[in-house]
Predict the structure.
Amino acid sequence: MHCPHCGNMDDKVLESRQNSSGTTIRRRRECLSCHYRYTSYERIEEKPLMVIKRDGRREPFDVQKLERGIQTSLEKRDISQNAVENLIHEVEDESMIQAGSKREISSQAIGELVLKKLYVVDPVAYVRFASVYRMFDNVSQFIQEIGKLSLPRK
Ligand SMILES: [Zn+2]
């Protein structure tokens, strides 16, 4: 590192300290030329979670986009904001786990996680989400799913 005082490249580390969560290291350094003391910081750069879309393109995981999708399917349904937030956090956590060390997950896999959760929370939202995101391979599969919900008939 360049000494901020004289620009010399040689320094020695006097002390290294980690923060309590282990994500930052602070080093106290001394320039070997002018003996000026300064501090440097090291941070862990987290690799972002990437979503592989159907067309093969990758984009960073966007929790707001996920939330919009879920909110749309829950529109006019009697689900508390708290339940929605829990659902989003669970999907986010499980996506991270599924992505593993590669930090990559398909949009399809995320969609399936959402469906699994929505099915428990609200069956109508489940069908809405599934139809918007075309999670079913064909129409008969979709009808089958609706049938499982045994919606009241008029
Ligand atoms: Zn110096």
